[in-house]
Design brief:
The chain is α+β, with helices and mostly antiparallel strands. The protein has 26 helices and 18 strands. The protein is 54% helix and 11% strand.
């Protein structure tokens, strides 16, 4: 008791410390309140992968195999991010558990998103401590809360999507912390185990999300650039080279995982290899110059938008939030003009971060890295630039983190000019005001979501939200509600009878105008577990045309179909679709065509996507690549083989609608 009272007296005698502590409590309270009140939107994707991960299989390896089947989780778009799937699996299990406990009315919260958001703030706190060592601990806590109070993070609580984005932001924060810490020469040589753990963490970040790969490459380039500058100036730089080497080796392992190990496992689990066209490096290498110019411009615009979202959200603001943001900017500007002499006790002079060049490089290259990262994301998946996603920004959490670190680095540069307590007060108050501006502008950000492409989801979830809170399941409840509250013994039957995201596809093989398979009508494939095997013998003549046709049934949603047929002569000569695939009609005997009620017509080849499609097709439908076919609205997709010589051939294959998850 004798020691507690003097400690409390000393604490409260420092008024600024008390004010900063109050700021931190307010910011943390706002985040927790937003987390509690923002009921998540249950997107159609969520219903699919949550039920998939929650469906009991009865064996350990069967559960592990779920991480290597991108059909029900990524619509068969192979992205080599299995570590993200592990945490989505945990998410699904936690939802199934918590919603059954009477004490909870938790809804569909992403446990891993919340966990990694908190962990990211903790890492960001240590980054602030490294960049601004003279600041009080409570001041660093306020600055670290900037990440949680960005509109991207606040809006994300209302969207149950994928947890890989916030996980990638956490790994990015951890890598940035290591680099910033090692900008100062180590007092003693690092043990090799430190670099092994760093490389392991980098590899895990790469297998979490492609944004982690981009951030890793940025950190490699940044550390090498700083090491080169320090080498020329005669300063210690070896630990920076070790840092770059750890990330580089991790990147090498990731390439082996991405191109060799993971495809092999997926092929063993599913019976056919993944479709690499979604993440192929060729996609970017084959873009024309105009495409890159547009991509860079859009990447720049989106990065600037993310920056303003992180520091005041002017776009969605109103008079109160604008006033708070303006006051914050004035405080930051005033802190830049006040000069005080530096003393020997200044923390910035005691450590290696006096190298301003390194900080300037971190700020500039960080911004450019965000532009490049968002440019690639925009070019690869431009629907992510829809208006509501622009404003919500939940796909760009890693970019948000990097931009906040750049802002903190700028504060660190300003601290070289002004190391007074007044400077600390200005910066911390500015950060608090920016957080408040973001909070008060949040209502407008939510309106964007409710007026954009997710409007239907929001309206549908109002009823869903009432069911979650009351935990009352009726005959009219959606499938996911019934699934979550059902006993484990009933879950398998519910899963198998659940509504599908697609209606399957029709399949047919013709020789000229004669049907070869099936005997009549169409072979119907319902989903990704419904393989339609064919093994037929046909007498052919030179010049005959064999058509492999995919039809949409009623709609084209999720109609991506794996079909890699083989045509084998009696002498063993084989023509396989994937091996004979090319960007030229007729090469190796294969043609790529479509039919909309009339004759078959050749499709047009798209180099970036390495696939065939028709002109002006909506989002590339119909389309065809080495082993996939996707029909269009009222348009059949046909892979055609022209027989080179007469004889008896055997046509084998196992087509399956991989776009419709089982």
């Amino acid at each position: 008791m004798d020691t507690i009272i003097p400690t409390l007296s000393k604490l409260f005698s420092d008024r600024l410390r008390v004010v900063f502590a109050l700021m931190f409590v307010i910011m943390a309270g706002i985040w927790c309140t937003t987390l509690k009140n923002s009921r998540p939107v249950i997107h159609g994707e969520t219903e699919t992968f949550m039920a998939y991960y929650g469906n009991p299989t009865g064996g350990f390896w069967s559960e592990v195999a779920k991480f290597f089947d991108p059909t029900p989780t990524d619509w068969d778009n192979y992205q080599a991010r299995e570590f993200s799937y592990v945490f989505e699996y945990i998410d699904a299990q936690m939802v199934l558990l918590l919603n059954k406990i009477p004490f909870f009315s938790y809804g569909f919260r992403s446990i891993t998103q919340i966990t990694f958001a908190i962990l990211t703030v903790i890492v960001l706190y240590f980054i602030v401590r490294e960049l601004l060592p003279t600041f009080r601990r409570v001041s660093c806590m306020v600055l670290a809360m900037l990440f949680l109070l960005t509109p991207q993070m606040l809006v994300m609580h209302g969207i149950y999507f994928r947890c890989g984005k916030i996980m990638a932001a956490f790994w990015a924060a951890l890598g940035i912390l290591c680099l910033i810490h090692w900008l100062k020469p180590p007092s003693k040589p690092h043990n090799v185990i430190v670099y092994v753990l760093l490389g392991l963490g980098a590899f895990l970040s790469f297998v979490t999300d492609k944004q982690g790969v981009m951030i890793g490459l940025w950190l490699i380039a940044l550390s090498l650039l700083i090491a080169g500058i320090r080498h020329r100036s005669g300063q210690e730089f070896r630990h920076l080279l070790f840092f770059a080497s750890a990330f580089s080796i991790a990147f090498g392992f990731y390439l082996v995982w991405d191109y060799l190990v993971c495809p092999y496992i997926i092929n063993a689990v599913r019976g056919h290899p993944p479709d690499r066209s979604w993440t192929s490096l060729r996609f970017f290498l084959l873009h024309d110059f105009d495409g890159y110019v547009r991509g860079i411009w859009n990447g720049f615009k989106l990065t600037v938008l993310q920056l303003q979202l992180a520091v005041g959200n002017i776009w969605d603001g109103y008079y109160l939030s604008w006033g708070l943001a303006l006051a914050a900017y004035i405080l930051i500007a005033l802190s830049a003009f006040k000069k005080t002499p530096r003393t020997s006790s200044n923390g910035n002079s005691r450590r290696g971060l006096t190298d301003r060049v390194a900080l300037v490089l971190m700020v500039t290259t960080g911004f450019l890295s965000c532009v490049f990262m968002i440019m690639l994301l925009y070019m690869r998946h431009n629907p992510l630039a829809w208006a509501d996603i622009w404003r919500g920004g939940y796909y760009y959490l890693s970019a948000t983190l990097i931009l906040i670190v750049a802002l903190l680095s700028a504060f660190s540069l300003l601290s070289h000019r002004n190391s007074s307590r007044r400077f600390e007060a200005c910066i911390v108050c500015a950060a608090f005001l920016l957080g408040m501006a973001n909070h008060f502008s949040l209502s407008n950000s939510r309106k964007v979501r409710e007026e954009g492409h997710m409007k239907g989801q929001v309206e549908l979830n109002r009823k869903f939200d009432q069911e979650i809170r009351s935990k009352q399941v009726t005959e009219d409840s959606r499938f996911l509600m019934k699934y979550i509250f059902a006993p484990i013994s009933d879950r398998r039957a519910l899963y198998e009878s659940r509504p599908r995201t697609g209606d399957g596809v029709n399949l047919k093989i013709l020789k000229n105008d004669d049907q070869v398979w099936p005997d009549e009508g169409w072979a119907y494939c319902q989903h990704s577990a419904d393989r339609q095997y064919h093994d037929v013998k046909v007498e052919v003549k030179s010049g005959d045309r064999i058509f492999f046709i995919v039809n949409m049934v009623h709609g084209t949603a999720h109609d991506n179909t794996y079909w890699d047929p083989k045509i084998t002569y009696e002498n063993g000569t084989t023509y396989q679709a994937s091996k004979g695939y090319s960007g030229t009609q007729g090469r190796n005997g294969w043609y790529y065509q479509s039919k909309a009620g009339g004759d078959y017509v050749n499709m047009v080849y798209s180099k970036p996507y390495t696939s065939w499609k028709i002109d002006n097709a909506d989002r590339g439908q119909p389309s065809l690549n080495a082993s996939r076919q996707h029909p269009g609205h009222g348009i059949d997709c046909a892979r055609v083989f022209v027989v080179p010589e007469s004889g008896s051939v055997r046509i084998t294959g196992a087509p399956v609608s991989v776009g419709t998850p089982y």
